[in-house]
Structure formats: structure tokens, C-alpha cells
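Render this sequence as a predicted structure.
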Amino acid sequence: ESTGGGESTGGGESTGGGDNADAGEVPDAGSPDAGAPVCVPPETPPCLPGPGEPRSLGLLGDIGTINGFGVWGEQLFVGSSSGAGSGLEGRVVRISLGTGGTDGIDLPGAAPHHLQAHAQALLYAPASRDPSSFERVPRRVARQDLETGEAGELPNPEGFVSPTILALAGNARGEVFWSLNEGDRFAIAKWDPCTRETVALAEGQRAAILRVDQSTVYWQAPEDPMRTGNVVLNSMPTAGGPLSSLIALPQASWNGPGLLAIDGAALYYLVEHDGDRPGVWAMPKQGGEGGLLMPGARPLHLNSSTIDDQYIYWTDFNGQEALLRTPKRGGATASVFGVSIRGIQALTIDACNVYWVVANPWEVYFRAK
């Protein structure tokens, strides 16, 4: 998701676990070294009001791929990777909105996929090159406490020795969810910050996209596990319980865009193949009739971290240089905060500001909403 990222303008101390921390040497999050349990959900810190016009937070250097983008209070996080062949170099950069300073964590040989920030914690899945295919494969989830600075690797569910992490999500309770597969075994995992244990919440579910709130997990999976193509959007209580199938969508691929985002009341999804009514739809989170909210839209950057109480902020495949805003309750889409000809590569918001990354050269911007 996202939630469901960029590179460094410099280096200093680590976002927590030490400067240039190696992702391959993170302690087990079940150990005392991983920080105190988050049994009482932390309050979201206040955001820092930004300027009335776009302001640069600095260049990000020579990078290849953005792997995640997140904000927590006055801290903005960018995940990036660079390198060709066997020389993969990843980095998580933290930018202080208060001071403008930067620091970060170097991840030699690994890219921080699915990077996001929730409940006082930075989450990502370090992806290393698979020697047999040279693809970047994430096999574990890393968590860093943003108060204590301690880092830890979350244990995969029992029986998963070297899985592939397909998606990652966290909620305000500090719970962490990820989907994974190994061979012909699939599951959605849940890590509890109080017990420090991981359980397989939904065995057999091949989830390509995860979204989660404090009570429910939502995901996209193939309608037929033996086929690609049509997908179904499912839900399940975060505490476990019966699975509910909410809606089936025609798709060209089981892991193509479908489930986009959730907010307090609605689930947002993309319909690409529905006669003359493609676009972004919204439906009640508990299921029910959906409505076409953004006709013809083909979102490039739209997820739960780009929605507030009034608007959806997004960019479109057919106009990546424009930052768009659509009223959630219906209305015209407007182009706001234009970024000339430099395409937007990542986008997130908080209660105060909009943050985005542009390419050529890589640079981070923000401004008040």
C-alpha cells in the first residue's frame, strides 16, 4: 500500500538503530533489543504546517528506484535503491521538517520495499537479489521504533522459512500485517506489538495488496487461486474470524491495480474493464453498492496515505507531472500544486501538508494543503 518512497541528501545519525545499520544484522523484534512493546497505541504527533507555496526539502542524489514514502509527525521518510547487476544499494532517508536536516540508514545489498510509517514505527521489507533470478525479493519485515530508535526483524509465521513478502501494512494500534508465500503455501501474517508474536491470520490467501485499519484487514486476491485475471476484494477482522468477500473485479492480472485505499468509511478501488464506466469507485467498507467517484481515472499514486477527511490527492498515469485533488463526496477533480514537467514519483499527506518526490533530478517538495 503504502502506503503503499527516495534517496539521501546526506547522512548523519541513523533514524534509530545506528548510522549505516545493515539490514541483514537487525535483531529479532521479539528480543529485548527491539524496544518496548507498543501495547498502548501511541498518539499521532502533531504535524508541522508547511509554506503556502511548494518548497524543496533537498535533492536526493543519484538513485534508481523509489521504494516507499511516509511521514510521522515532523519526520519524513524516503526509501530508495540504486545499482545495477549485483551491486544493489538501498537507503532509508529521514528528513526533519523542523530543521531541514537529513540522516538515514544504509542497506547494503537490500532495497527497502513497502516502506511506510505507522504507530511510532517505520516499517519496510528489505529486498535482496535472488541469486537464481537476480530479482529483488523481500523475505522478511523490518520494524524500527521511532521513539527508542531500536530496530528489529519481525518473525515470519511458523513454517515459512524463506518466503516472499508480497505486501505490507500497519495500523494505529501498532499491529503489522504482511502477505507472503513460499512454494504453494500462502498466508496473511499478523505481528502483535504486545505479545511480540506472529500468527498466520488468513491461511491460503494469495494477497497482492493489503489495507488495514484498527478493526479490519482488507486485501486483493485472485478470484480463482489457480488462475490470473479476475480478483476479489476480501476482508477479515484483525483479531481473526470469518472471511468476507466484498466484490469481484475483472482484471488483466491478479496483482494489478484494484484495491487502492481505505478511509474511515469507504473502500476505494479501480475498475479498468467495465464498459464505459472505468475509473475509481467507492463502496462502504462493510460491503454494499459502490459508486463511480472518479470517472476515467487511472491513478498512479493513490493509497490510504493520500486521503484526508475531504479530499483524495493523486496523480494519473496520463499526467504524471500534475498533482490532482478530488472531493471524496463527489465533485470536479482539480489540478493543484503543479510541478512543471517533472513527473511525480511518490506522494503522501498528513493533516497539514502534501509531500511529493519528483525526478530528473530527484527532489522532495512539500507545501500546506
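Summary. The mean pLDDT is 85. The chain has no helices and 29 strands.
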